[in-house]
Structures are given as C-alpha cells and as structure tokens.
C-alpha cells in the first residue's frame, strides 16, 4: 500500500478492493486495511455448509464468515462482497436455498454467484471423468440459477451481470471496466493488463517478476488483438451485463456497421427468446443469461 501511495495519486480513487478468504482477516489486519486506501473487501465464502467446504478443499468454516463480516462492519467497511458457488457436487436445491437465505442475512451490498466450473487437471475433473462426481443435472442447475435471481431481486439486489448482484450504487467498478471492454493496467507479479489492443501478463512469482523488471520487461506474454478479435470481445464481455451492448458505441468504437456484422445473428437470437433489443441496446434475456456461453459463441466472426 505504501508503494502504491508513493507513486500513484489516489485522491481520485473510486474503488480499491482486496480479496480474502474468511478467517484470514483478524482484527490487526482489518485495522491495517482501514488505515489504507482500501474501501471494498471481497470474501471467498463459496458456501455456508461446513461439510461442503471441506469437500471442495476450503480451510474456513461457516463461523469464520460471520466473524469476518462482523469485524469488517465494526471497522467501518460498508462495501463488502462475497463469492458463492452453486451446483456443487451433491448439492441439493434445499441447500442452495439455505445458502441464499444466509447470504441475504449478512446484510451486505454485493454478491457474486457462480456455478461450479471444472478445470482440466483438477481433482474434480478427474473424479467426473471416472464417473464419481455427482453434479446436479442441467435442469436442476437452471432451477438453482432462476431461484437465486428471484430471491436476490426480492431482497433488493439488481442482477446487473450474469454472475453479479448488487444493491444500488454498489456495483463492482473494476469488473464493470472489464465487461465494458475498457483498457486497464496490470501492475505487479502475475498481473494482467490490456492497453492499446495488447493483452499482457506479467511474470510471477515475485522473484521472477523482480528479475524481469530489472532486465527491462516485466511481461511474460503479450497478445496483440486484431480488430475482429476486439469486436468479438466487445460482444462476449458486454453481453454479460444486464444492460447489454450499445450498438451506437460499437459503431463509434470500431467504425463498422453493427447491423452489417451481427444483424441477422441478433434477429435469430431474438426469435429464439435468448436476446432482446431495447432502443440502442442489445441484451440477453434471463434464459439467454443462463445459456451465456452458447449465445456468445454466435458472435464469433468468420
């Protein structure tokens, strides 16, 4: 934090988020955060079920969630977010309902809810390939998704992005920047950035990063995006938002006709009930949001 304040003017800072796991933030660490420029805390809760937490390899317990939230509120933090995962192995609809109720009961302004994503070379993926991972069926996962949206909206949250819900004014500013396909700097070991159409990633861990900085180039990879790729990403990312994509902004940014590129695709998706047009904007319906990746694939340009 001292390094940041030494080299950056934080007087115009809108949001500085720190991510932590429940149980990581004791009173001393929270005091340090409160005396810094940090104004938002995101906790990786995942679930309130102690047995499920152990099953997915998390070290915290349900009690740690409440203790950390209480400590943060007592210190004066009001912009608190949690991450939850649903469609976990063996998870039932009743367990999802219980998780949602407990999350709402925390009285915090932001939540991110993700369905379990299986990555290659992980324990869960290996179990699934051996037929030993009892994941909820797709129709049950869809029912969970619809229930989560309905309950959180009833509790005053806006479903402003596929996986994100907030009370008014508490939308995640840095994530909105990603979904708007805006540019951003990645600073530090392992950080990613996107500037002038170049997506890059820095060296990590810290010792490799420091050595690379001394040698004059902190970046380990660079990807130069073509206009075609930038337009595709504008759609992939923008359609994650409830507000969708502005056709006028798209044309101004890329100098291409939106209708010429995507008019027939949008028309077809509207007929399928997956998208809708509202004035200048195209956005996904609730059904479209659940099938987000399937819809996004339609915007790959040949």
What brief labels describe this structure?
single chain, alpha/beta, Transcription Regulator spoIIAA, Arc Repressor Mutant, subunit A, 3 domains, 6-stranded mixed β-sheet, iron-sulfur, Coproporphyrinogen-III_oxidase, rSAM, metal ion binding
Summarize the helices and strands and which ones pair or pack.
Blueprint: H1 2-7, E1 17-20, H2 27-34, E2 40-46, H3 50-55, H4 62-74, E3 80-86, H5 93-105, E4 110-115, H6 123-129, H7 138-154, E5 158-161, E6 164-166, H8 173-179, E7 192-195, E8 198-202, H9 206-214, E9 219-224, H10 227-238, E10 245-246, H11 247-254, H12 258-271, E11 275-278, E12 281-284, H13 286-290, H14 292-297
Parallel strand pairs: 1-2, 2-3, 3-4
Antiparallel strand pairs: 4-6, 5-6, 7-8, 8-9, 10-12, 11-12
Helix pairs in contact: 5-7
Account of the protein in words:
The mean pLDDT is about 90. Helix 5 runs parallel beside helix 7. The strands form three sheets. The protein has a six-stranded mixed beta sheet with strand order 1-2-3-4-6-5, with helices on one face. The protein has a three-stranded antiparallel beta sheet with strand order 7-8-9, with no helix packed on it. With about 300 residues, the protein is of the alpha/beta class. The longest helix is centred in the middle third of the chain and has 17 residues. It has 14 helices and twelve strands.
């Amino acid at each position: 934090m001292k390094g940041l304040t030494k080299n950056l003017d934080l007087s115009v800072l809108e949001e500085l988020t720190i991510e932590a796991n429940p149980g990581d933030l004791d009173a001393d660490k929270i005091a340090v955060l409160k005396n810094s420029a940090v104004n938002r805390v995101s906790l990786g809760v995942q679930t309130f079920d102690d047995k499920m937490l152990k099953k997915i390899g998390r070290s915290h317990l349900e009690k740690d969630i409440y203790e950390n939230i209480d400590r943060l509120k007592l210190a004066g933090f009001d912009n608190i977010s949690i991450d939850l995962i649903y469609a976990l192995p063996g998870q039932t609809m009743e367990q999802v309902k219980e998780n949602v109720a407990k999350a709402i009961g925390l009285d915090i302004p932001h939540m991110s809810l993700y369905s379990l994503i299986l990555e290659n070379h992980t324990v869960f993926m290996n179990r699934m390939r051996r037929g030993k991972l009892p994941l909820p069926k797709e129709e049950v996962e869809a029912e969970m998704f619809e229930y989560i949206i309905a309950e959180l909206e009833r509790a005053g949250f806006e479903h402003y992005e596929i996986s994100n819900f907030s009370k008014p004014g508490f939308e995640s500013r840095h994530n909105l920047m990603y979904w708007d396909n805006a540019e951003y700097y990645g600073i530090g070991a392992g950080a990613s950035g996107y500037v002038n159409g170049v997506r890059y990633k820095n060296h990590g861990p810290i010792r490799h990063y420091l050595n690379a900085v001394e040698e004059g180039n902190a970046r380990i990879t660079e990807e130069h995006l073509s206009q075609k790729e930038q337009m595709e990403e504008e759609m992939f990312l923008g359609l994650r938002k409830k507000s969708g994509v502005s056709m006028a902004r798209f044309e101004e940014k890329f100098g291409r006709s939106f209708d010429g590129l995507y008019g027939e695709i949008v028309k077809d998706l509207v007929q399928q009930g997956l998208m809708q047009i509202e004035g200048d904007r195209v956005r996904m319906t609730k059904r479209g949001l659940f099938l987000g990746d399937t819809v996004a694939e339609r915007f790959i340009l040949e």
